[in-house]
Amino acid sequence: MIREGLYLIWHDEPYPANTDGYRVFIYADRPIDGFRETGPGRYERDVTDEDDVAGAYISTVGTWRGVPVKALYDDGDRVRIEYTGGHAPIAESLGMDRVDKGVYQTWAARADLTDLHEIALG
């Protein structure tokens, strides 16, 4: 599983999370007691005032063709990755697409990624 973004731990389970600037929400892709359905396969719970919530930014990182990358999301056998080495000429030499100033991404075969693991920041 590729996870990238804010996750909150609620009742000992990690959930993707977001905020609207005033409230904090956690999300699930299946019905869970206390969550409300917001769309097909999408459920949310407002945890703004709950005491038993802890959070972290979770990133899936690894190596591709010898350089450090962050896995953003997957599409079956392919993974969208972003170069994290900080040297544009290296990213360009690997054929990565510049998507923003200093930001390089590409699709990679999952089999070509090594040492994929999650890190939690915060």
Question: Describe it for me?
Answer:
By secondary structure, this protein is mainly beta. It folds into 2 domains: 5-56, no CATH class; 58-121, no CATH class. The protein has one helix at 88-93; strands at 5-10, 13-19, 24-28, 36-39, 42-46, 53-64, 67-75, 78-83, 97-100, 103-109, 113-121. Strands 1, 2, 3, 4, 5, 6, 7, 8, 9, 10 and 11 form an 11-stranded antiparallel beta sheet that branches. The longest helix has 6 residues, at 88-93. The radius of gyration is 17 Å and the shape is elongated. The mean pLDDT is 93.
Which class best fits the helix and strand makeup? mainly beta
* Silhouette: elongated
Tell me, rounded to a whole number, the average pLDDT. Answer: 93
- What are the secondary-structure elements, in order, as H or E? EEEEEEEEHEEE
